[in-house]
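Final report, results section. Input specification for complex C-07:
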Amino acid sequence: MTETATLMRTESREEQDTKKLVIMAWSGDLDKVWPTLILATTGAAMGQQVTVFFTFWGLFPLVRNDVRVTGENWMQKMLSLFNRGGTEHLKLGKMQFAGMGPRMMRKLARAHKVASPQELLELAQDLGVKLVPCQMTMDMLGLQREDLIDGLEEPAGATTALLDAQGATTLFI
Amino acid sequence: MTETATLMRTESREEQDTKKLVIMAWSGDLDKVWPTLILATTGAAMGQQVTVFFTFWGLFPLVRNDVRVTGENWMQKMLSLFNRGGTEHLKLGKMQFAGMGPRMMRKLARAHKVASPQELLELAQDLGVKLVPCQMTMDMLGLQREDLIDGLEEPAGATTALLDAQGATTLFI
Amino acid sequence: MTETATLMRTESREEQDTKKLVIMAWSGDLDKVWPTLILATTGAAMGQQVTVFFTFWGLFPLVRNDVRVTGENWMQKMLSLFNRGGTEHLKLGKMQFAGMGPRMMRKLARAHKVASPQELLELAQDLGVKLVPCQMTMDMLGLQREDLIDGLEEPAGATTALLDAQGATTLFI
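Structure output:
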């Protein structure tokens, strides 16, 4: 192996480290979706190669806002009734205040020019952030591809996520 | 230092980065234990060197399923009464539905051939995942070594976790 | 590029990897503030260069203990009433027991010589841990610089956090 080859390997590794951001988006709460999408879009705007893996509750914000009930059996349907998907229906992880909390938080965000989850999601897509739904969760929670918004990558699993995470800044949110 | 030495260092670093997965398992909720163990076993199956540090609430899933009350003083005992340990007694972080939630989730998982936490824990051990309980939490929450399942590493602390995290994909779940 | 240069780059990269710990502290709950500050101070004591970015609920533990209400409009004020800031007023993420939980947990910690959040925060500052409040959250939640404790870095945003995270062990807590 020549010095050049060594150098190339070192450079390629450096490139990997400095340019990749992988977020495992597990939570579907408004107050977690915000940092997920703010970090993802900021990373992409900085030239990082960003991938967000949406898993478990994190999949629900990817549900189309006009889809009401998802799931094939009563358990999955009940779940979606109590936890409606879509960026317009997100709840807070705490301080729910009987629904007042999320509305207040969105109002505060608007007043301070913080983009809404919906705007950030569209911005992420414009900036080339890869949005990957977790296949296993989709199966388990009864989410069909057509329940989810357009412009997502093919559903994938933990192996893909872990491969992508190699040499990346990786966050579980 | 020779070119070979440089190369070796580069390789050893690469080995570190691509082959290590460190998870700090803070939560004992069913919906967090699942991704923890799915990522850990997937990583190990891919040939990664995987370590899971169990800390705080994360320790409770490691309690033996036949142990009812843990702790030495009334506070620790009360804690264990309201938060029974063991893979069979995990709750959901949200959507508890008076206990229905976890049962529903397990049923959905079974229907879609997602392994149970107990199966994943055993698989992790078979695959050589290192399961390390946090000593400080054990002391604080009154968990004795004999309250926990067999096959764990020696209890350790934050220093060990941070050393292990160097050059690894690290997730706080 | 000479072999020495290659070596230097490799070393500088290694230095980066092994010596940086970046924590994004999103939660203001007692049971998350503890691991955040224990990891931060342990890392610093081990010679790592540690930065903690406090964002969203994570900002509230940085509020001065003698400040009661924060915020400029009624929404922000209401938020601070229900979620009082300061290390002395932290709640647990679960097991609140009508306020009993945090008190019990602090008592257990004291009995086992685990430092309090306040002590750990001061220790972190003594050890040179950089504590950075998130500017966007401060604006949104109505937190002024004078509401927060002394000794913090200048407020910053996601770009700074992601730049700092490059080559570091990064945790989202």
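The beta strands of chain B are 20-25, 49-54, 130-133, 169-172. The first helix of chain B runs from residue 3 to 19. This concludes the modelling results for the funded period.
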